[in-house]
Amino acid sequence: MALMITDECINCDVCEPECPNDAISAGEEIYVIDPNLCTECVGHFDEPQCQQVCPVDCIPLDPTRSETRDQLLKKYELISAA
Q1: What is the number of domains present in the chain?
Q2: Burial label, 73 (beta-carbon count in 10 A; 0-12, 13-18, 19+)
Q3: pLDDT at position 82, please?
Q4: Is residue 8 one of the residues assigned to a domain?
Q5: What is the pLDDT of residues 40-55, one digit of tens each?
Q6: Exposed end of the chain (fewer CB within 10 Å): N or C?
Q7: Non-local CB neighbours of 41 within 8 Å, separated by 6+ positions
Q8: pLDDT number for residue 8
Q9: Are 41 and 69 in contact (CB under 8 A)?
Q10: Domain assignment of residue 54, yes or no
């Protein structure tokens, strides 16, 4: 699954630089995650780095974007090849 940022986001700016795929960017009111670029850090780290640094724990799995680890790895490979 891709991750998402909820409206509990306090715009602290710590998640964006942690994303190895540049999937996180500033939205109109809070940070947002591009689900097409989010691999939950598969291919880079064992755990999603944005979740690890978020001080308010507002980055859950996006229930509308179900993906297996194999699918996330394939997405990582496509992103890395581009």
Answers
A1: 1
A2: middle
A3: 80
A4: no
A5: 999 999 999 999 999 9
A6: C
A7: 20, 47, 48, 49
A8: 97
A9: no
A10: yes
Per the structure, the complete domain to which residue 36 belongs is given by 16-81
Q: What is the pLDDT of residue 1?
A: 76
| Contact partners, residue 59, CB within 8 Å, separation at least 6 | 3, 4, 5, 6, 15, 33, 48, 50, 51
Percentage of the chain lying above the pLDDT 90 cut: 98
Distance, C-alpha 53 to centroid of its chain: 12
Q: What is the CATH number of the domain that holds 45?
A: 3.30.70.20
Q: Flag whether 51 is in a domain.
A: yes
Stretches where the chain sits below pLDDT 70 are none
Q: Is residue 11 part of a domain?
A: no
pLDDT at residue 73, as a whole number: 96
Structure-token pair, residue 34: 């591009």
